[in-house]
């Protein structure tokens, strides 16, 4: 109970500090931004670039367009649309990462040959990769079902999600002490039994942090994928559409950004809740 209370208080304190820093800089900062050696190092503080926090929050209750739905509902619907790509990409990426980790742990030659390419895969810029995936997807179909734009976004989310799981699980599967492995061999346990009885339980402290990173990466991949591929309906596309109105309605842009951030926190929160439930079950056992 105390741990959960500290967590809630910590989140609340972080929000208060963030708001205080935002409003504090807006109060004392230069309206034209802070310039150092001819380059702007801090943003402008006028209302067009940095609306007040209460202005942004009040915008959620106003209609998106004249006579339309309130903007909180539009942002929520966009986040739910993006959540589909995030969920599928996260699950698929997690499974791929888990399988790669097991394979690399099982065969040393695979780890030496594959791990550098797993790491190298994350150096490819998403802004360049997303159009390629969308172009390839446009030529594919699943049976009689044509490839949908959201599927390209899912592939991008999966691409970012598999890496933390693969690296984290590999470290976790390799974490048991040599004496524990020798004990399993003394019991005549095979590789599969050792994996299930020793390595997987030992990898739990590494698995859930990796899953949290994967969840956040899947959200980033989905949002960037929607922006890069022009997929309509998601919060990424909403950021682009609202950015076009930044001059006349700057607070509107931040509503979409807050929605994307809230989606990432929600997905990471689900993973954290799963970790808590698994921990409680292990304590009872």
Secondary structure: helix percent: over 70%
The biggest sheet, with number of strands, parallel, antiparallel or mixed sense and barrel status, is: 2 strands, antiparallel
Q: Give the mean pLDDT.
A: 85
Count of DSSP strands: 4
Percentage of residues in strands = under 5%
- Which structural class should the secondary elements be placed in? mainly alpha
Structural account:
By secondary structure, the protein is mainly alpha-helical. About 75% of the residues lie in helices and about 5% in strands. It has eleven helices and four strands, in the order αββααααββαααααα. The protein has helices at about 1-30, 55-60, 70-105, 110-120, 125-135, 150-175, 180-185, 190-200, 205-230, 235-245, 250-285, and strands at about 35, 40, 140, 145. It has a two-stranded antiparallel ribbon with strand order 1-2. Strands 3-4 form a two-stranded antiparallel ribbon. A hairpin with a 2-residue loop joins β3 and β4.
């Amino acid at each position: 109970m105390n741990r959960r209370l500290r967590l809630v208080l910590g989140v609340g304190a972080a929000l208060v500090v963030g708001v205080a820093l935002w409003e504090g800089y807006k109060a004392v900062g230069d309206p034209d931004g802070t310039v150092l050696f001819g380059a702007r190092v801090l943003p402008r503080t006028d209302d067009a670039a940095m609306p007040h926090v209460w202005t942004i929050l009040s915008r959620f209750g106003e209609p998106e367009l004249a006579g339309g739905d309130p903007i909180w509902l539009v942002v929520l619907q966009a986040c739910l649309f993006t959540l589909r790509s995030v969920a599928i990409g996260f699950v698929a990426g997690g499974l791929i990462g888990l399988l790669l980790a097991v394979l690399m742990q099982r065969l040393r030659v695979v780890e030496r040959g594959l791990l550098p390419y797993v790491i190298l895969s994350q150096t490819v810029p998403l802004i360049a990769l997303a159009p390629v995936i969308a172009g390839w997807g446009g030529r594919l179909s699943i049976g009689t079902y044509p490839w949908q734009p959201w599927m390209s976004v899912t592939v991008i989310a999966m691409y970012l999600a598999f890496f933390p799981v693969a690296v984290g699980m590999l470290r976790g599967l390799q974490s048991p002490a040599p004496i524990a492995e020798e004990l399993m061999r003394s019991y005549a346990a095979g590789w599969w039994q050792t994996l299930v009885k020793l390595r997987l339980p030992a990898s739990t402290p590494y698995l859930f942090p990796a899953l949290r990173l994967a969840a956040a990466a899947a959200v980033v991949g989905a949002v960037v994928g929607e922006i890069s591929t022009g997929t309509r309906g998601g919060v990424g596309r909403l950021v682009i559409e609202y950015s076009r109105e930044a001059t006349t309605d700057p607070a509107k842009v931040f509503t979409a950004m807050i929605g994307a951030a809230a989606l990432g926190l929600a997905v990471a929160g689900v993973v954290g809740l799963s970790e808590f439930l698994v921990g409680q079950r292990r304590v009872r056992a």
